[in-house]
Amino acid sequence: MxxxxxxxxVAALNASVAGAQALDLRQYRLVDLTHPLNAKxxxxxxxxxTFKLDSLSYGPTPGGWFYSSFAFSAPEHxxxxxxxxxxxxxxxxxxxxVPLERLIxxxxxxxxxxxxxADQDYRLTSDDVLAFERANGKIAPGTIVLxxxxxxxxxxxxxxxxxxxxxxDATKLHFPSYGVEAARLLIQxxxxxxxxxxxxxxxxxxxxxxxxxxxxxxxxxxxxxNLTNLNQLxxxxxxxxxxxxxxxxxxxxxxxxxxxxxxx
Length: 264
Hints:
Blueprint: H1 4-17, E1 28-32, E2 52-60, E3 66-73, E4 81-83, E5 104-111, H2 113-118, E6 123-124, H3 126-136, E7 144-148, H4 158-162, E8 177-178, H5 180-189, E9 194-197, H6 211-218, E10 223-225, E11 238-244, E12 252-262
Parallel strand pairs: 5-7, 6-8, 7-9, 9-10
Antiparallel strand pairs: 1-12, 2-3, 4-10, 4-12, 5-11, 11-12
């Protein structure tokens, strides 16, 4: 039996597109929320490798036409990427098994940029969530919640984005993200489809226990990290597509995230 969250997400998607023939993209503003993968892409400080692109072929062929081909390699968790529940939850969903209803759904954006300017380690509180709901309505089951901190403007400067650039050391990081109580409210009570943020982790920089990851994993809720352009989204009304590479058995992977916003 489908969960309420899944039914809500499917209903919202059906209402938005009403069949392939009725989807007129001219009626929507499309916003790419994804950082490109390149040599400057940021990874967790302890990652042994980063993104690499090798040229296999580039130029004219003996037949006279142009041909290019590349090989890439990268850790799962870097750049704009999805954390599958198994990332912090043994036996939970791998990236290839995350239901599409958790990856294509209505989105809300909670903006805490004013607070992060005063506190680089700010954590979203349950009071922040309730204040958002008083202004915009209760967050429905099946919604993807996006947290805007303003940190994406610092990308790809490692020191300002992560708060520290010591090689192979993740103990000195400083950046804002979700707080534990807010995560419990969103995941356990509001039953959201996924949570995302424009910083390197759904746990704030100094976290040593990664409780937000663990809460999300226990509920099979994926996380989306290192988003950008959240300033271009309204608090409510966007439809989000967050489709990761379908890595069988993977704990996550690069994801292209696109928002569709109805034109007024």
